[in-house]
Each structure stands twice: as C-alpha cells, then as structure tokens.
Design goal:
Elements: E1 6-8, H1 15-35, H2 51-67, E2 70-75, E3 78-83, E4 86-91, E5 101-103, E6 113-122, E7 125-132, E8 137-142, E9 148-152, E10 158-161, H3 166-183
Parallel strand pairs: 8-10
Antiparallel strand pairs: 1-2, 2-3, 3-4, 5-9, 6-7, 7-8, 9-10
Helix pairs in contact: 1-2
Length: 184
C-alpha cells in the first residue's frame, strides 16, 4: 500500500530572515577584510581580498541551505515533518486529533517556544525540539505565528507546524484517523 506522499506546503520564512543572512555575510566579510594584513599573504594567483568574502559565503551558505529544507507530508499512515537538520515521523494513530487546533501564538503565548532543546532558532524561524512556555515539550516547524497547527500527541508532547493551509492538513489527518479506526 505504498501510495504517493501527500505534500502540504509550509509558510515560507519572512524575507527579513534572508536579509539577516546577507547582513551577517557583510559583517563577517568586513571584519575579515579589516583584520587581514595584505602583506602577510604569500604571492598567490588568487588576490588576498577575494578569500574573506568567499570564506564568509561558505559560513553563511550552510545555514541558508538548511533553512530551505522544510516539508510536511503524509506517508504510509505517518505524518512526516522535515525541518532543517531535524526530521520527525509520527504515526497518525499517536496524535490526539480531537484536541488539535489552529491558533495564533500572539494570543496563546503559552504555546510559544521558550527554550531550544535541539534545533534551529532564528528570528521568525524555529525548528526542532523546544520547551514551550507552558512547560510542555514540542517538535516545531514554525515559520510564522499567525496560524499555527497544534497537534497533541498521546504521550503529552506537542507538534507545532506552520502549514499554509492548516485546516486542510488537520482535516486530512482526521479523515485518515477515522479511516484507520474504522478498519480496526
């Protein structure tokens, strides 16, 4: 019963996050150029002033590549979340979908990530394992705060997602959950 995975689009991160990386690159390059002594470089076919910008680009390119790696899908009865260097597969049967809801984190601050346990945390982009303000643990793929899908698991942990259409994902999960309960 290997069907094609159902993909659910994730809200793209704020453009400010990309500007953050551009400013970071400029800052690293400026510091490296200011601290480099041009006379200390041996005779080389590559001009000395080209090395710092490219080295800084390598430092910034890695996190930017991980930033683009985000996906939410349903595959073989499991919710699959890929978020930067983190990924998570959860059986739909392990989700307490009757308690799931879509909410805004600005109004419901108890669900805001407070402490990063393992993951990535940048302005407007939080992925991985977090401790929330209500002291519960959650796996997060958050690129926005306006419409967040909160999926409680039966073990007490939470999953927080920023899909573009959270109601569609929740409806599909409930539909699959009812289908699997009817088969039992």
């Amino acid at each position: 019963m290997n069907r094609e995975p159902e993909q659910f689009a994730v809200v793209p991160p704020s453009p400010a996050l990309y500007w953050f990386f551009a400013v970071l690159w400029l800052a690293i390059t400026a510091v490296a150029l200011l601290r480099t002594d041009a006379g200390a470089w041996p005779a080389d076919p590559v001009p000395w002033w080209l090395v710092p910008p490219f080295a800084a680009a390598l430092l910034v390119a890695g996190p930017m590549v991980w930033l683009m790696r985000r996906r939410v899908s349903i595959e073989d009865g499991k919710l699959v979340i890929v978020a930067g260097i983190n990924s998570r597969k959860v059986a739909i049967a392990e989700l307490a979908l009757d308690k799931a809801r879509v909410l805004g984190l600005d109004e419901h601050v108890e669900f805001k990530p407070m402490l990063k346990l393992f993951g990535s945390g940048l302005p407007g982009y939080k992925t991985g394992h977090y401790l929330l303000r209500n002291r519960s643990r959650a796996f997060c793929l958050l690129t926005g705060h306006e419409r967040v899908l909160v999926l409680p698991q039966r073990d007490g942990k939470l999953i927080l997602l920023s899909p573009q259409k959270p109601q569609d994902l929740l409806a599909r999960l409930r539909e699959l959950s009812l289908g699997s309960n009817a088969e039992r």
